[in-house]
Amino acid sequence: MAMVPRDIETVLSRYMQWFPVVSLTGPRQSGKTTLARHMFSDFEYVSLENPDIRQLALDDPRAFLTRYHKHVIFDEAQRAPSLFSYLQGVVDETDEPGQFILTGSQNFLLLKTVSQSLAGRMGLAHLLPFSYAEANRSKQAPSSIDRYMLRGSYPRLYHSDMPASAFFHTYLHTYLERDVRDELGVRKIADFERYLHLCATRIGEHFADSTLAAAAQISPATASDWLSLLEAAFVCFRLRPYYRNFGKRLVKTPKLYFYDTGLACHLLGLTSSDDILLNQPLRGHLFENLVVSELLKHYYNQGKEPQLYYWRDSNRREIDLVIEQGSQIRFLVEVKASTTYNPHAFANIDSLGDLMNIPIEQRVLLYGGSESFTTRHGQVLTIADLEQIVV
């Protein structure tokens, strides 16, 4: 099957004209290697998953970079982090853009060796699994939003008829055994797996490390470390509360989401779209997760840094998403999984939008229906039109 075009390609081409090094990070199986080799087919490809290659890079990085000194893709580059310090010297010799591409399943921003060695020399891009638009391009997109949430958006699921359950079983086994144990040093795999399953039950909820730790029967410090690992590996992320105080004390705890709803559904034991329909509160949380993760994809695919938050005051009035640009609120977004529009869904946005002086056109209801339109309360948008609120 032909490769599905990815929306981030324009950003990568631009970065290759600006920076000596371009990093492409994202979760395992999001299509990083396929995309890099497709776009830059004239570059030499070097996988640091290969133990012999990796050993050479670790033992003698100078000789390694003499051998691979220009127009190279280093795949899974986080496996040899000491290489970055030496890479700085190579790129500084010529300062020529487009010399190296680094791909990895961990966020390089969190590796101190990268931030210190390649600051100002590296363009940073994140490739998440397919967006809704990209999945539709594959011509194998699920026929409904519930099926899309259940299947998830990893490209391999759109290149074959593989059951999602088979993919995620293998994905979790590989992730837990290789990344968590061998690469990240976690030894209590059974405890970690239980913790990961518990994270899925907390989607869209306010949480604290101590609460999740108690449920998983681990220490708060361990829970905090493990959540940081899941964030670095693009499995989970936290949505922070909006801190600007408009006369009310705000809730300070974050919310937890998964980068892919298919993985979350697998962890929750959901095996069909009927399972989702029969669990209405859970369906609402999964749809909210889908909206937030789709927004992240659109931001990253355009090379933009998302400024996404949620709002909840001491009176428990809540807005699902606050989208900021600079220091200004650009959109207030309420998320409803219902396929039918109900004007009452705008209730919190109506009152809080007036308090914040947010114009009507910047108030949005994102729902599970198939038609987008404008009302006197604000915009009503579908998942397909979600890109309209990426600023």
TrEMBL record:
Coiled coil: none
Domain (DUF4143): residue spans on this chain: 177-338
Record-linked Pfam families: AAA_14 (PF13173), DUF4143 (PF13635)
InterPro entries reported for this sequence: AAA_14 (IPR041682), DUF4143 (IPR025420), P-loop_NTPase (IPR027417)
Domain AAA per the UniProt entry, residue ranges: 20-134
Highest taxon above the source species: Bacteria
PANTHER family per UniProt: CONSERVED PROTEIN, DUF4143 DOMAIN-CONTAINING PROTEIN
Name of the molecule in the record: AAA family ATPase
